[in-house]
Amino acid sequence: MTSIKQAAETFLNSRRIAVTGVSRTPANHGGNVVYTRLRDAGYEVFAVNPHAKSIEGDPAYANLSEIPGGVDAVVIATAPQHAKATVQEAIDLGVKQVWMHRTVDKGSVDPEAATLGREHGLTVIEGGCPLMYGRASDRGHRIMCRLFMLTKRIPREV
C-alpha cells in the first residue's frame, strides 16, 4: 500500500489532469473549485461535462476520450453512480491515476468503481480532495485533511 500523502504527490505530479463533474452553474460546486484552483496553480486541466461546451471560460469536453492528447490523471467529482463509467473509460484510455473527490458528504466515492480501477492497475484515491495537498492547497484544505484523516473520512493509504 502507498500512503495517501505519496499517492497525492504522485497524482499532483501529473502533467494533464481532467476534472469530471464540473458544473455550468458553479456556485461552490466541488468540481469547479478543484478545476479552477488547479488551473490557477498552473496545471493543465480539462473540464468534463457532457452537457456543456465551456466551463469557467474554458472548453469543456463530453468525456475523457474527447480531450485532445489525453490526460495523465482524473479527478472524479460527479455523483458516485457515474464513477464506475469514468473509471472504465480511464482504464480503456490507459489513464493510471484516479481521485474520487470527497469532503464533507459521500462525494464521488464508489467502492465498486475503486475496486474495478485497482483490478486494472490504477491508483485510486477514495476520498479527500487534491486541494488538500501540494501547490494548489490552502490552509483550510490542509486543516480539513488533518481532521478527515483523524475521523477516517479519507484513507491513510491507497
From TrEMBL:
Ranges for domain CoA-binding: 11-105
Lineage, broadest ranks: Bacteria, Bacillati, Actinomycetota, Actinomycetes, Micrococcales
Name of this chain's protein: CoA-binding domain-containing protein
